[in-house]
Amino acid sequence: MSTQHLRGAVLGSPIAHSLSPLLHKTAFKALGITGEYTALEVSGGGLQKFLEERGSEFDYLSLTMPLKEEVLELQSSDKVIVKVDELGKRIQSINTLVKTGDGWSATSTDGSGFVKSLVNAGYDRFERVLVLGAGGTARAVAGALDDIASSVDVMRRSVRRSPAIAACFQKIECSFLDWDDSADLSSYDLVVNTTPSGAADLVAENLSRNIKGLLFDVLYKPWPTLLARRWSDSGGKIISGLELLLYQGIDQLSLVTDLAGTEIDKDLRLALVNATT
To answer: Which of the residues are catalytic?
Structure first.
């Protein structure tokens, strides 16, 4: 049994709905770790002040919107030392801060959690992929798809975010499509929806009746989304964003404790499922 003591928190706004405390507390119990993990409201523009005033209270921090990009601005701060790894710089998105001797190391586990969700469902390689949306989550997904996809299309509403998405790829060159509610998605073997709730509802309404590919919808509450329900009704398979939440959280924990040989995903998944049904 572990004797480790950890202090963690998830920061963002709004944060009251976050399932991260449940996830991490359940993991602490399964691993025999003492300590605390809580959700704290930190609005945009408030991360540096929080780290200055309360950073010493924590061993690691999970970041959600709107802080995943804001943390990148702290690399030039002379008051808070934040060292962003190469992945975080490439995808311009951070979801994890780990306390170091003189500051914080920053990275993202969203991409690795995305890949592990796919592997757990039996998928490890895709020929044609479509990403719906071009925001922060899409960048994390894009960085991961660079290793497991042959071609990637990104359907966007604005060209403004295109350069940031394109920079996430090192091995392949993505193509951009303007948003089209009536787009034919049947030719893709993986579609990843990274858009906010309701944004893809018209896409769902116009789905083909013959879907064979996989939909990974990063949303998980309420579940199923309209897109997920219509996708399943049309014959396709679906993965919920709850799986992404699960595996990105496990990867965060692996940065602060030794998980070697310990399988906690089943216990954590059960806790998350019970909390969302």
So the answer is: 68
Residues β-bridged to residue 11: 40, 63
Q: For the chain, which domains are there?
A: 5-109+255-276 (3.40.50.10860), 112-240 (3.40.50.720)
Residue 253's nearest CA partner among 267, 273, 239 is: 267
User: Distance between CA atoms of 108 and 131, rounded to whole angstroms?
Assistant: 19
Q: Are strands 175-178 and 126-132 parallel, antiparallel or unpaired?
A: unpaired
Secondary structure of residue 153 in the 3-state scheme:
strand
Whole-angstrom distance, CA of residue 39 vs CA of residue 104: 19
H helix or E strand, kind and range, residue 203:
helix 201-205
pLDDT at 2 over 60: no
Bridge partners of 82, per DSSP, are 104
The answer to whether residues 203 and 227 touch, using CB atoms and an 8 Å cutoff, is: yes
Neighbour count for residue 35 (Cβ, 10 Å): 14
Look at strands 34-41 and 126-132 and give their pairing: unpaired
Distance, in Å, from the CA atom of 225 to the CA atom of 220, rounded to the nearest integer, reads 8
Confidence of residue 1 (pLDDT cuts 50, 70, 90): very low
